[in-house]
Amino acid sequence: MSISSTTERGIFSLLRTSIFGAEAECSLFEGMSTEQWQQIYTLATAQGVLAFVYDGIKCLPEALQPGLDIRIQWAYNVSHIEKIYDHQLAVATLVADTFAKSGIKTLILKGLSNAQLYPKPSHRQSGDIDIYLMGDFERGNEIIRQKGIKVKHDYFVHSEFIVKGINIENHLHFVNPNVNKTGRYINDMLLQLSEGSLPHPTVASALIPSATFTALFLLRHSSWHFARESIKLRDLCDWAIFLARCGEQIDREKLMDMLRQSGLERYAAILTTLAVKYLGVTSPLPFSESYDKLSERVKEDILTFDAGKSGKRGVIATFIGKIRNRRSRKWCYELVVPDGYMGNIWFSIRGYLQNPFAIFKAKL
């Protein structure tokens, strides 16, 4: 999939305006055709930033905005995103209150915590709710079972259960500690940093991670997904808004040491370079290199990579598709992330041998 320069410039401009308050670049949208607006809509949908881009569009003069048909479609889907967020927030509150009654603290990770950094939290799309029960993993699972809710253990890093239609991932580990030394080191560091968690701003009985925890967690989580199946603009926006809002709260000396120890420094530098160049972040971390050329390759990969997950496929087609996908990601292991290519291949094979049906499991 290729992205036109007009589409790329347009979507980054709208993100800078909506998320970071940059002045609307009206000249980019003069004479933009319905087809070009449709391309921006399609890309924003695929990249998980549909609502953010819509906020940017509303900052343009009406004469430069897309036609009524596209705007109606856009507004309808943004409204749907807001309703999902409100429902997730209600479910997170219910779950945290349930555990609190038994003296268990709930740390909310990823989506619902990242969302709080944005001008409009309800416009940050997410799927599952990720939680960590501050060492009470098994007791938390048992409380859920006693309420008649099935708890699944398909993946050793976390259990899963569904509350009011929302999938909850209860983490035993923050990241996979068994795949390599990087995973073990980072999980140990996150465990230590979790002790500095703070009250959650919107879920009264829950906690939110500290800035230093969030920096390390965001980078490890996205680097793992980048190497295996790329990431989305939503992930880049998460890192950018985090730097802009929380950069001064990070224990920078500790974070830079952890990035060097874990091998994540290059990936972090690349993501930060993209946040500065394309999203206008002005408070970067003190990296010695920016890897400009490699950063451009990563940016192109984010915008264009297709993991081929859409549609139902047979056993052989699915298996072949996963092999092709992994082969196409070899450069990421060699140039960008600290993980080993063959080590991750073996980790995946071992996982599928233990749980063959996981190969067909779709992620939200």
List keywords for this structure.
single chain; alpha/beta; 364 residues; 15 helices; Beta Polymerase, domain 2; 2 domains; 7 strands
List the helices and strands and how they pair.
Layout: H1 5-20, H2 34-46, H3 50-57, H4 68-100, E1 106-109, H5 111-114, E2 129-132, H6 137-146, E3 152-155, E4 158-163, E5 166-171, H7 181-193, E6 198-199, E7 206-208, H8 211-229, H9 233-246, H10 252-262, H11 265-279, H12 292-304, H13 315-328, H14 330-335, H15 341-354
Parallel strand pairs: 1-7, 2-5
Antiparallel strand pairs: 1-2, 3-4, 4-5, 6-7
Descriptive overview:
The chain has about 375 residues and is an alpha/beta fold. The protein has two domains: about 5-65, no CATH class; about 85-360, 2-Layer Sandwich (Beta Polymerase, domain 2). Helices cover about 55% and strands about 10% of the residues. The protein has helices at about 5-20, 35-45, 50-55, 70-100, 110-115, 135-145, 180-195, 210-230, 235-245, 250-260, 265-280, 290-305, 315-330, 330-335, 340-355, and strands at about 105-110, 130, 150-155, 160-165, 165-170, 200, 205-210. The protein has a seven-stranded mixed β-sheet with strand order 3-4-5-2-1-7-6. The two termini are about 20 Å apart. The mean pLDDT is about 90.
Quick take:
This protein is of the alpha/beta class. The chain contains 15 helices and seven strands.
Based on helices, strands and strand pairing, what is the structural class? alpha/beta
Give the tally of β-strands: 7
Strand order of the largest sheet: 3-4-5-2-1-7-6
Order of helices and strands: HHHHEHEHEEEHEEHHHHHHHH
